[in-house]
Structure formats: structure tokens, C-alpha cells
Task: structure prediction
Amino acid sequence: MKLIAENRGTVILDACHLVASGGEGSVYAKGGEAYKLYHQPRDLSEKIRLLQAFAHPGVVHPRGALRDEQGGFVGYWMERRHGTSLPNLFAEAWRKANHFGAAETTKTVLAMREIVSFAHSRQALLVDANEFNWLVDGTTPWVIDIDSWQVGPYQASALMPSIRDWSATEFSEYTDWFAWGIVTFQIFIGIHPYKGIHPAFGRGKLVERMIANASIFDAGVRLNSAVRSLDEVPTRLREWYRATFQEGVRTLPPATLDDTGLASPGYRRTYHGDAVVSVTQLSSPLPPAAGFPATYVAHDRMLRIGGRLFAVVNDSDRGLIELDEAGIVRTSWPVMANATVFFRTAGLSNYLGQPYLLTVADQVNIFPAAFLRAQKILDVFSDNGIFAIVLAQDPRTALVSRYLCRLEAGQWRAIEQEHTEETFINAASTGSGIVGYIPGNGELRVYSSKTFAQHQVQSAAVKAEMILEQLNGQIVFRSGGLMYRLQVSARGA
Result:
């Protein structure tokens, strides 16, 4: 496809450059630029011209309009940014792996505050700055999809219900700050401020609780032990959160913070075994993490999926190259890397609006998962090529579901669905068909990834804050600089 990029020139985009496709349009990336093409373009060239003036290091703003060869408006182009999706920062496993604690959270949140203030200083409203419209690299945030902003005569309409200020009758700077508060609260605590178990509301009643100001600051709300402490939030900001979410007060958040909360909590308990589950110290200190070998293969980045080593090539129709531990090519796989999000043990491709799960067994497999269409994927765990657990959020309701999935006749099918408040899948495999999984309630679930048999184990030795990993065919977790093995007896498994 040949396009004319204003202020840049001619650009040719192929299928391998596709990043994502949604209801409004498709995003492509090539080199250092990204391109958004609308499915049903109307001439928004004047709005794009207005948004070009929003030059700020934290704003991925349009650099010019995109036109087809006949001169018709079809979209816009912008600089390409590489970062992690903001929901990753909610998850304790990601935070521990990336050494992201209270100080890093505070720095990121203040930078996000400055970006919102910048937009307001230019008489714009973000309106739908939900967690999926932010990227973060280290502690540097970027806001994306700013073509949805309310600016000049162009009114905004789309808004995720989970960040909407239900007390407001129109969009304003205060509704933006409410949305900012919802999103940043989750970076600190790991959970939406209107989740947890409230005695007066059933599960899934998020909007009803938002309308009633029934937040987690209510003393009657019960939270699982994986939720981080409110003490991690700097005092001034914590009081602003309380006033906003529990009392319905609308003010600007504090511009400076008096402290940075507590240090990131480590494990605060000593683990003791019982008749079903045993916890055994394995090492002191921890074994070194596996690094990446040198390789002469041209690539954009390297990663491990399910313990195997891959080089990722973004602008290619064979975007996943498997390497051995010496960096020598084993084989390549037909993966559109631009359109794929990689997790610890699997990947999720969104190609022309259709979701595909990528799993690693004897080979790399990519099969459709139609039940995930239009959902926001938070995490994927896979084992044995046919077993997967998927965490996905419905953007229409903000409800998060956990799916237990099985590959059948070339299609991924959900055999169980359960609403949850988890932000990541705390699971690990032995590598021989046994999967251990600890959901947010702290129980241990043991699955056979071959037969899909499952058992639930209640044990005082199991805590929600144990982050599970695989090491040499064992399920382990880390605590206090040491590593422990989690072992389930025959009676428990």
C-alpha cells in the first residue's frame, strides 16, 4: 500500500508492518514511524493539524496527515515508541522482575501528571486516557491515541466505563483528573480503587460502586493479600485518592509529594509446610538469571518464551527466529512480530482484528482464539502447546476474566471462564505436564496440561504473594534473596 505522509513523503506499507487493528482503524509501524489508518476515514485533517501542535516528550502526537495516491485523507503518522503497556506496572510479577518499586512508581505517576497538565494548558481534554492508552519505558510514560482527545470544535465520545466520572454530566479537566487517579492508583496498589469485596455489592458491580463512592477506602472492603499496601502511596496523594474515590471530592491532585511511600515490600512471612504442600529452601544466593548470547542475526530485540531463545524482527513476515544458547539460528517462524505481544510463556497476535495465541512446544504454533476478539489481553500462560490460561479485560464493562483454554482441532476454545481481580497469571510449569497456579485468593491450583485434570489445594504454606517460576523442572518462588521449591504431594495433586 502506497501512501503520502505529510511532512515526510511517500511510504509503502506491507502486511508485516501491521501492529493492531480495531474498530476505528489499523496501526502500522515501519522503522521509526507509526501510521494510523482509519477504516472509514472522514476528513479529520484539521483536527490532526491542531494536534500537531502538542509537541511534548510524553505525548505521541501526529506529525502529519496520511493521504492515498488520489489525495484523500486516510489517517496520520507519528513517531514510533517502544514501551510496555501500563497494565504491566500493576502486576507484582512484572514489578519484581523489572525492579520497579515505590520510588519508580512515584516518578512515573508524577510524569503522567505533568503530561495531563500539559494537555490542559493547551485547552485539550484527554477524556479516555485509560490504562491501555499509555506506554512506559523505565519511568518515562507516553500517552498515545491522542486523536481521541477533545480539542477545538472536535468533541470526544468514547470512554471506558472504568475511568468515567459518573458524577459528571460533561467532560472537564476534573473528569480527566478522576481518570488519571483511577489509572495511577492501580500502579501503586495493583487494583482498581472500586474493586475488592464490598459487603453491600456483588462481584462485578464496578459501575454501581463508582456511582456510590464505595471504594477500597471503605473499612468493610476485603482485599486479597496480593494487593499492595496503601502505605506505599505518598501521604498527600493517598489523601487525595481517598477524597476523590470515597468522598466524591473533585480537586487537582498534588503537584509535589512529601514522601515516596514505603520501600517495595518483600515477602513478610516465613513459610512452613504441612501435610499437603511443602516449601523447601533451594539456594543462597539466587542463581544468576540467564542472559542473551551474542549473535550475528539482525534483530530488534531478544526474548525467551517458555525457556527458549528467540530473536524478534519487527518488519518481517518471519519475525521470530529461534536461536540456540550459542546464538546460532535453529529456524525461523512466520510470525508478524509487529502485531504480537509476547509474554513469559506465550504470545498474542492481533491480525486484522482477529486474535491468535502463539505457543511454544515442539514447534511454534499460532492458532485463532475467536473468543478473545475485542478484548484487552493482560497476560497469557501456556504449557505443552495445548493448555493456556488467559487474563483478558472487556473494555465495555472493565470486567477481567480468566479463561482456561484448550487447543482443539486448530482452534483455541475457552473451557472455563471466571471473573477475577488479578492483573497477571501467577503460574509455572514443571515442564513435564504439571502446572502450579496461585490466583489472587491465595489458594493453589494444580493442573495437568495434558489431561486438564485440576485440583484445588488449601494450605497455610501457600500465600498469594509467592511469585511462581520454573527452575530445572521444579516450581519455585523467591523470597528475601533466597529461592524456595513448592512441592505438592500426591494427596494434594
Notes: The CA atoms of residues 94 and 165 lie 29 Å apart.
